[in-house]
Amino acid sequence: MSKIGIGIPAYATFEPEVAFDYMRMCYSFGRRYQDHDFYLLGKFKSEQFRARNSIVQTALQFGMDYLLFLDDDHIINWKENPDSSSYDFLNKLLNHKKDIIGCLYYHRTGEYKPVLMKETGDKKYTFLDDSEINKGLQKVDVQGGGCMLIDMKIFDKIKPPYFEPEMQTDGNNLGTDIQLCRKAKQAGFEVWCDTSINIGHLMREKKVVT
Fold first, then answer.
1. Going residue by residue through the chain (210 aa), what tens digit of pLDDT does each one get?
2. Distances from the Cα of 111 to the Cαs of 127, 133, 195, in angstroms?
3. Residue burial 17-32, b: 16+ Cβ < 10 Å; e: rest
4. Is 169 left (phi over 0), alpha (psi -120 to 50) or beta?
5. 22 alpha carbon, distance to own chain's centre
6. Which end of the chain is least crowded, N or C, by CB within 10 Å?
7. Going by DSSP bridges, is the β-strand pair 191-198/100-104 parallel, antiparallel, or unpaired?
8. Is there a contact between 146 and 136 (Cβ–Cβ < 8 Å)?
């Protein structure tokens, strides 16, 4: 029986829609995933990299086999399927048996790009376009950290700190998902995405009411 940590770095403004969805997800995991034990590794954050480091260290301390990172602004069952089949996404990811693998989701502002990236040069990355998404299993350079399943064996070769401040000393702004995927690839691991699985990203629109 494997041990799976669910790591959620969360701001204090954790939205109730997300909380309710994640509670239904955990309930579904408990009923449908009889071969796994689950552990909630939530961490309030003011800085992304510190929260993620703390979650990884806790997962290592308690001997997790896998770590599922989720952000605090996603909706898994965005289609509101009554049978909760949306929560089967984890079983699909586990069955792929990849070092790092995640699901497809999109930015919630701007051009709404898919949060998958390819390396274009030394510490330079660009987002994939929809035309580059094959709606199946595909290898990527960076999987978005908002939904990322990690085989804990990668931390046998990646040394702490696993995550660092996003603004690097050389002036590059590297998100924590870029940092981890970059270090994993340098250690000989692969990064994948099952782009047939699309999860929701909750928007936060501010409006002036008069």
1. 899 999 999 987 889 999 999 999 999 999 999 999 999 999 988 889 999 999 999 999 999 999 999 999 999 999 888 888 999 999 999 999 999 999 999 998 888 999 999 999 877 899 999 999 999 999 999 999 999 999 999 999 998 999 998 876 565 678 999 999 999 999 999 999 999 999 999 987 656 664
2. 11, 16, 19
3. ebeebbeebeebbeee
4. alpha
5. 14
6. C
7. parallel
8. no
Distance CA 206, CA 185 (A): 39
- Rg of the Cα atoms in the chain: 17
pTM, whole model, 2 decimals? 0.93
What lies within 8 Å, CB to CB, of 207 at 6+ separation is none
The H-or-E segment that residue 61 falls in is: helix 48-61
Instruction: List the structure tokens of 138.
Output: 């595909």
